[in-house]
Amino acid sequence: MENKKIIFSGMQPSGIPTLGNYLGAFKNWLDFQDKYNCIYFIADMHAITVRQEPAKLRKNIKELFALYLAIGLDLDKSIIYVQSSVPAHAELSWILNCYTYMGELSRMTQFKDKSQKQGNNIPTGLFTYPVLQASDILLYQTDLVPVGEDQRQHIELVRDIAIRFNNLYGDIFKIPDMYIGKVGAKVMGLQNPTKKMSKSETDNKNNTIYLLDDLNLISNKIKRSVTDSDNEVRYSEDKPGIKNLISIYSAITKKSIDEIEKEFMYSGYGNFKSAVAEVCVEEIRPIQQRFNEIIKDKAFLEQSMKEGYEKANNMANKTLFKVKRKIGMI
Ligand code: ATP
Ligand code: LTN
């Protein structure tokens, strides 16, 4: 690999990716691809922290891999692989569990949210999820992690764990920075715009735009989204529905909030929603076309996953061996 900064990120195959995943993560991943050494993985070991149906998980992993390529990630520029194929993730995760504190993990808001939905039997993996995330990032001597706003707390913890480890054993891990985009970093639900859009929540399908939804359905979901009643296109905390649509429009068109407010000052919600629907549909249309081609080619997908595994496995083992030696393992 050339001597450029290392970018590392990933997504869970816990459902079909959403417009939130696209604007908060995918779009930024693409921007890094030409200038840096990028590694993008499929976090299937993270996905099993909540119960997954095996056949569906397998399908989701393949589809997510194909989607990575369909949005424009390029196998000649980036390393793309599936987490569970590289054993070093699980190994380093065990080690780092011994350097992470219960108190730190108890403060994670994602754990609090997700554990509430689990009843009395909360899987331990849901609690130690951020330790696995630390292992992912630290194995590759990552410089920068592009994620959505919801991951801020996790990445801060990853940095704390790495600094703690380095203080004990010398400069083993690179301390990663995070990259969170200015717009699109937290896309909210269309029916409940006070809560983030999330691919694993399927109770109300109108709340979420899935990248593989029929294009007419995408348009209708946006047109039916919940807004307030004053009909004024203005970016304001007390107008969460419109604020969300303005952010989506801004993230896709790259127009500023000011420009958008001016453009739609007199148009009312109906016209504005139609404009948002149109840019979303036109953004997603070519992705779906490419996805439909790629997903058909099973042999190509399998071969690509194998190549990704080989490259990632080599890199990850270098860090893992260094860690094991430093802590006294033989
Ligand atoms: P799950 O519902 O299983 O928790 P998720 O939709 O929250 O999944 P992840 O796989 O956990 O998605 O996240 C993948 C990437 O997408 C992360 O970088 C995350 O920050 C980003 N992301 C997730 N949801 C949103 C959102 N609503 N807006 C912007 N970015 C998001
Ligand atoms: N927890 C992440 C997915 C994830 C990740 C990572 C992202 C697992 N390991 C390492 C960046 C880097 C999420 O987005 N929910």
Q: What gross morphology would you assign?
A: globular
Order of helices and strands: EHEHHEHHHHEHEHHHHH
Mean pLDDT: 96
Helical residue percent?
40-55%
Helix count, per DSSP?
13
Cofactors, ions and other ligands in the entry: adenosine-5'-triphosphate, L-tryptophanamide
Number of domains: 2
Radius of gyration: 20 Å
Distance between the termini: 29 Å
Instruction: Tell me the CATH topology of the largest domain.
Output: Rossmann fold
Give the beta-strand count.
5
Major pleated sheet? 3 strands, parallel
The structural class is: mainly alpha
Low-confidence spans: pLDDT under 50, at least 5 residues? Answer: none
Strand arrangement in the largest pleated sheet? 1-2-3
CATH-assigned homologous superfamily of the largest domain: HUPs
